[in-house]
Amino acid sequence: ATNMFVHVRVAPLGEEYILLLADDRTEITRTAAVRNDFVANVSHELKTPVGAISLLAEAIEGAADDAVAVRRFTARLHKESARLAALVQDIIELSRLQGADVVLAGAGIDLNEVLAEAVDRNKLPAEEKRITISVGGTVEQQVFGDRDLLMTALRNLIDNAIRYSPEDTTVGVGLRQRDGLIQVSVTDQGPGIAPEEQERVFERFYRIDAARSRHTGGTGLGLSIVKHVVANHGGEISLWSRPGHGSTFTVRLPVIEDAVENDQTIS
Ligand code: ADP
């Protein structure tokens, strides 16, 4: 069972609506189960930073006379609360994406521009690791969608490429148009992802190496968010990777002409 988009254009008003339809009952039942699972996972994931924060607060109280220790604990307290904030933000984003009311207010989006901004916003972390972001290709056509969501998706992919890459490497970002699809690819020279992990990395809270992911500031929700954004836009995401040879994530989104062809015009 799959979700599908139906474009409906109300001709006299010139307004477009997209309806997201769950196409059968099984899908609805499955969605409910997945949601319960999500709640259980969320509670579990929140416990770690919340627990750390209360321990650190106690430690600060106990170390009141030791200025150096207080500074150290305070720095960790800030880090844990930033982690908690990121986690809460990703959880909200993901639960919004799992609802049926996403991409209601879509528009024609120029991915050249969105991608350029996504790269720009990742400049600082890249510079910190002396990673070069090399951008190639432009596209003529637009995609239909939600700019903020597409931005989030592209930023997450570039952010991961930077976080999982060693210093002094290159992250390649490419844009091209092919067979009525716009293709965005993000390639890194990082550790790569083993074949048996390649599907799992898109699952919520799945991390290949939880300790390292925590260290690099990940929430375990990034790729899951990307996957949902892409699906909500009628696209797909794929991963090519070989351990030791880096990874390439490729997003394919239908160009706007395709969407218009499938429109049902009500007059
Ligand atoms: P996280 O917040 O942990 O980065 P993601 O959902 O973005 O969560 O990714 C899930 C897991 O997939 C990560 O913990 C990491 O193990 C792996 N991963 C994601 N992107 C890459 C990449 N570019 N190279 C290697 N591993 C990656």
UniProtKB/TrEMBL annotation:
Keywords: ATP-binding, Kinase, Membrane, Nucleotide-binding, Phosphoprotein, Transferase, Transmembrane, Transmembrane helix, Two-component regulatory system
Organism domain of life: Bacteria
GO molecular function, a single term: ATP binding
Enzyme Commission number, as recorded: 2.7.13.3
Subcellular location, record wording: Cell membrane
Reaction catalyzed: ATP + protein L-histidine = ADP + protein N-phospho-L-histidine
Domain Histidine kinase: 41-257
Protein name: Sensor-like histidine kinase SenX3
Native source species: Paeniglutamicibacter antarcticus
Phylogenetic classification of the source organism: Bacteria, Bacillati, Actinomycetota, Actinomycetes, Micrococcales
